From TrEMBL, chain A:
Its main location: other. Residues 38-68, 133-162 form the 4Fe-4S ferredoxin-type domain. The keyword Transmembrane helix does not apply. Keywords: 4Fe-4S, Iron, Iron-sulfur, Metal-binding, Repeat. It is found in: Cell envelope. The keyword Metal-binding applies. CDD domains: HybA_like (cd10561). It holds the Pfam family Fer4_11. GO terms for cellular component: cell envelope. GO terms for molecular function: 4 iron, 4 sulfur cluster binding; metal ion binding. This is 4Fe-4S dicluster domain-containing protein. The lineage of its organism: Bacteria, Pseudomonadati, Calditrichota, Calditrichia, Calditrichales.
From TrEMBL, chain B:
One of its GO terms (cellular component) is plasma membrane. Keywords: Cell membrane, Membrane, Transmembrane, Transmembrane helix. This is Ni/Fe-hydrogenase cytochrome b subunit. InterPro entries: FDH_cytochrome_b556_subunit, NrfD-like. It comes from Caldithrix abyssi. The keyword Translocase does not apply. It is a multi-pass membrane protein.
Length: 296, 414
């Protein structure tokens, strides 16, 4: 079904492009992606669920972090948690298929998509994809419409509903300001005691991930989540079982903004359709007036 | 003898039983508004990180825009397609659209977390954003509607500017200014009329593009790439029923005789328009094979069936039935069904169909959200009543007067 929808959209996009003039075919946002952009590889088979990353993240972002000893409490894995304004990353536990006694722990945060839906959706361009891979939010532009939250396929951006003034959109920023813009790894990666998180250039991480799967086919499910999902994400995951059983949504490989941008650009390139509609209506009105004057 | 209609301010006492109820609802809404702006969205709404948009977007904004479609459809019919026999309906339609869009804008302000930054939209706009297109079109169209309404203000006050006391010296300049604007708008109104129709077509359809970016988060019964077309077609079909409903309600509430002759002719457009919408809606369903979702009984299939059966299929049949067109009650019922059906469609697309992948807490509108929505609607109805008493909007029959207006929404009759 989604295939036929895709074909339909392609046809529609092609039709509109022909109508508007094939010269103007750059219907995608400006590509700022650097080949050397960073990413983080999460090997969930190595993660021990210590939640040191959660603590480090809160400290890094000046959020109330509490006592570090409380983070060894594993009872939090009984319920699914989601990132919110108090925690930009959380670790969830899922039953392991291989060993019923064990849990697979999975860190959740913004995936830093290569073609982010939030960036495409944002009405004032407050969210942007940086050259180094980070997707960051600009407080000075945001109007608080929360369309980014509607758009995000991973359901990541959170909103400070309790604030009457200056509520923020809260999400992982890949420690852009403080660390990754200077080439340093994010706080969570630095805090990870088991190297379940590896920071590096995205293309190198993809090689490492496939290398690990090749060397240990029994240990890994043969898929690198994030390599192709929604057009690729900066965060990549390795797992021991199907990713739908690790709490990941089933998303295709098409960039998340999907059909909206082609439709939008088809309507607005050079303002041809609106102007044509205006001219058409004007013509009808003028003809009507001529007829009426002849009758009189 | 031929009957002529002339728009006049309606002379009735403002207060009535209904008005008092509306005033109470409005006051309740205002109290909740103070809480919302004083303590934030979280204090009043049940919105959360899973459900960022609730009834304020689904009803106040999306349904509000759809139901304000009476303005552009009627003005297109009368001014662009030269159906002058529907003149009497233009002014009320334009005025309701103006009120409707004003309250859409107010509704958006309630929902925006940083409403005071709304001026960022025109200067920082992201041209990839569908919301930006909707926002800009709604802002521009709202301004256009004020321009289209202004001749009525001119008609009301030209020669009747009587400021008292220290402001007396302003009487002449204001009168002169009104005359100048009136004659300027008289020559240029065609530009604004076409602009209004174009802007409406643009944002009515773009409203349907809004949820496409949410992809699999929106239930397949409503998530379709032709959503913009469906939104546009449903806006076309809800415009006239809205004008009919308002006309019948106003004539009852204001003690006037309803213009049934005009309304009956007017209602004949509704059946075909709604039929086209129905055809596209079902065609889309067949092509995408989404009828499989109707096999299971859940909130989605039930809401879809209610929306289509009572909001589209039954009214289509009714509007092709002479008995309905002749009866005031049946015509009112059928119009109301379409209005509620389209409103429900918007509500379904934006609220019911939205199912995020991770749900920690379900969304159900809070008392505060409902109070503010009802409060805003109440204030809108009260303003309608006030405006038709101040300005010459609703036409009443006149004897022996030739009402040959160039544009009905333009001020002075010629």
């Amino acid at each position: 079904m989604s295939q036929s929808r895709r074909n339909f959209l392609k046809a529609m996009g092609a039709a509109s492009l022909t109508a508007v003039g094939a010269k103007n075919a750059k219907a995608t946002p400006k590509n700022v992606l650097s080949d050397d952009r960073f990413g983080v590889l999460v090997d969930t088979t190595v993660c021990i669920g210590c939640r040191q990353c959660e603590y480090a993240c809160k400290v890094e972002h000046d959020l109330p972090a509490g006592n570090i000893d409380d983070y060894s409490d594993r009872s939090v894995f009984e319920h699914m948690r989601r990132p919110d304004h108090t925690a930009l990353t959380v670790v969830n536990g899922y039953p392991s298929e291989k060993d019923k006694q064990q849990q697979v722990t999975v860190k959740v945060q913004c995936m830093h998509c290569d073609h982010p839906a939030c960036v495409s959706a944002c009405i004032v361009g407050a969210i942007s994809k940086q050259e180094n891979g980070a997707v960051i939010w600009d407080e000075s532009r945001c109007i608080g419409c929360r369309y980014c939250m509607v758009a995000c396929p991973f359901q990541i951006p959170a909103f400070e509903y309790h604030k009457a003034i200056e509520p923020k959109i809260m999400k992982c920023d890949l420690c852009y300001e403080t660390r990754t813009s200077k080439g340093q790894p994010p706080a969570c990666v630095e805090a990870c005691p088991t190297e379940a998180l590896i920071f590096g250039k995205r293309y190198e991480l993809i090689q490492i991930a496939h290398e690990r799967i090749r060397k240990n086919p029994d240990r890994y499910y043969d898929h690198v989540f994030g390599e192709h999902e929604v057009g690729g994400t900066s965060w990549l995951y390795l797992g021991s079982q199907d990713f739908s059983k690790l709490g990941f949504p089933d998303l295709g490989t098409k960039p998340a903004p999907g059909a909206t941008e082609p439709i939008q650009h088809a309507i607005f390139k050079f303002f041809v359709p609106p102007v044509a509609l205006y001219a058409l209506l004007g013509g009808i009105m003028w003809l009507g007036k001529q007829n009426r004057e002849e009758e009189e | 003898m031929e009957k002529y209609y002339k728009p006049q301010p309606i002379k009735r006492p403002f207060l009535s039983k209904g008005v008092i109820v509306l005033l109470i609802l409005a006051a309740n809404g205002i109290v909740w508004s103070i809480l919302r702006f004083g303590f934030g969205l979280g204090a009043v709404t049940n919105l959360n990180n899973q459900y960022p948009w609730g009834i304020w977007i689904g009803l106040d904004v999306a349904a509000g825009v759809a139901l304000a479609a009476g303005g552009f459809t009627t003005s297109a019919l009368v001014h662009i397609f030269y159906r002058e026999d529907f003149h009497v309906l233009v002014r009320p339609a334009i005025m309701t659209a103006m009120l409707g869009y004003t309250f859409v804008a107010i509704g958006v302000m309630f929902d925006l977390g940083r409403y005071y930054n709304v001026w960022h939209v025109p200067i920082m706009g992201n041209s990839n954003s569908v919301l930006f297109e909707v926002g800009i079109c709604v802002m521009t169209y709202l301004a256009t509607l004020y321009v289209e309404f202004f001749p009525i203000v001119c008609e009301r006050f030209i020669g009747r500017v009587h400021l008292k006391g220290a402001l007396k010296f302003l009487n002449k300049p204001i009168d002169g200014l009104l005359r100048f604007i009136d004659s300027f708008l008289g020559k240029t109104m065609f530009f604004f009329i076409i602009l209004g129709v174009v802007l409406s077509c643009l944002h009515q359809s773009s409203l349907g593009t809004l949820m496409l970016i949410a992809g699999p988060k929106v239930h397949p019964l409503w998530q379709t790439p032709v959503s913009p077309l469906l939104f546009l077609l449903s806006a076309f079909s809800v415009g006239f029923p809205m004008v009919i409903m308002e006309s019948l309600t106003a004539s009852r509430s204001l003690g006037l005789k309803p213009e049934m002759d005009v309304l009956r002719k007017f209602a004949r457009f509704v059946g075909p328009l709604l039929g086209v919408y129905l055809a596209f809606k079902l065609g889309d369903m067949v092509i995408r094979g989404t009828y499989v979702y109707l096999n299971e009984i859940n909130i989605y299939s039930i809401m879809w069936v209610i929306e289509m059966l009572f909001g589209v299929i039954i009214p289509v049949r009714m509007f092709f039935w002479d008995k309905v067109l002749r009866s005031r009650t049946l015509l009112y019922t059928a119009s109301l069904m379409i209005i509620l059906g389209v409103a429900l469609n918007r509500f379904n697309v934006f609220v019911i169909a939205y199912k995020p992948p991770y749900i920690l807490q379900k969304y159900w509108p809070s008392i505060g959200e409902i109070s503010i929505t009802i409060g805003l609607i109440s204030i809108e109805i009260l303003l309608y009543r006030a405006l038709v008493m101040i300005f010459p909007v609703i036409s009443v029959p006149l004897k022996g007067v030739s009402a040959k207006a160039k544009y009905a929404i333009r001020g002075v009759l010629q």
